[in-house]
């Protein structure tokens, strides 16, 4: 288990901007990782909009992640993240899904699929994300790793300052309708197949 504090900015970008920044980042950053990720979100803004729990598989590694902190209508977001590793097998994941589902009021769960290009320096972590589902969208996330620095000034270096997207509950409700596959839109069998795909 690990706990970290995150300071980050996030935004929606076009496919062209994504591709151009990807080329630039590959030249600039020495540390480059590709992470394929499936996340099932248990977020209920009617109960607590500043608390989200996710069942997550990243490059075959399974974990439960919980993030807390205010985020609505903010340029810079500060979050606390707790990560708990769990076993990498289909039975554990299905059981974890059901346990988490039973702990929250019954509602469709966002099933989020990403391919993330991660670039890390001693100053920042830049994530360029391609989310697939009902539609394909491109986003960025810039996380500060050196607390002595100004995240917004670093964002200007990558032309990201004006790409910051402030969000609220209505934004994510609309996003989920347009982009994210929801648990009531696929069968349990299809969900199981999807989990197996990301465990490989």
Count of discrete alpha- or pi-helical segments spanning 4 or more residues: 6
**String of helices and strands:** EHEHEEEHEEEHHEH
Q: What sort of overall outline do the alpha carbons produce when their principal axes are compared?
A: globular
Structural category is alpha+beta
How would you describe this protein?
With 200 residues, the chain is of the alpha+beta class. Helices cover 30% and strands 40% of the residues. It contains 6 helices and 9 strands; from the N terminus they run βαβαβββαβββααβα. It has helices at 15-28, 45-48, 90-103, 151-157, 169-178, 188-199, and strands at 2-13, 31-42, 51-58, 61-68, 77-85, 110-120, 124-132, 137-144, 181-182. Strands 1-5-4-3-2-6-7-8 form an 8-stranded antiparallel beta barrel, surrounded by 4 helices. The chain is globular, with a radius of gyration of 17 Å.
Fold topology:
Layout lengths: L1 E12 L1 H14 L2 E12 L2 H4 L2 E8 L2 E8 L8 E9 L4 H14 L6 E11 L3 E9 L4 E8 L6 H7 L11 H10 L2 E2 L5 H12 L1
Antiparallel strand pairs: 1-5, 1-8, 2-3, 2-6, 3-4, 4-5, 6-7, 6-9, 7-8
């Amino acid at each position: 288990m690990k706990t970290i504090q995150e300071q980050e900015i996030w935004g929606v970008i076009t496919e062209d901007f994504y591709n151009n920044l990807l080329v630039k980042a590959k030249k600039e950053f020495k540390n480059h990782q590709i992470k394929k990720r499936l996340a099932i979100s248990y977020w209920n803004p009617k109960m607590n909009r500043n608390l989200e729990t996710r069942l997550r598989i990243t490059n075959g590694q399974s974990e439960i992640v919980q993030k807390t902190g205010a985020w609505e209508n903010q340029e810079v977001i500060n979050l606390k993240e707790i990560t708990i590793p769990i076993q990498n097998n289909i039975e554990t994941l299905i059981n974890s899904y059901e346990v988490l589902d039973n702990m929250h009021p019954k509602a469709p769960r966002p099933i989020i699929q990403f391919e993330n290009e991660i670039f890390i320096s001693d100053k920042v972590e830049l994530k360029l994300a391609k989310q697939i589902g009902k539609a394909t969208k491109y986003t960025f996330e810039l996380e500060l790793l050196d607390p002595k620095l100004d995240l917004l000034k670093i964002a200007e270096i990558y032309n990201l300052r004006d790409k910051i997207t402030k969000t609220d509950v209505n934004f994510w409700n609309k996003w989920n309708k347009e982009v994210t596959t929801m648990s009531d839109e696929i069968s349990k069998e299809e969900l199981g197949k999807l989990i197996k795909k990301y465990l490989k």
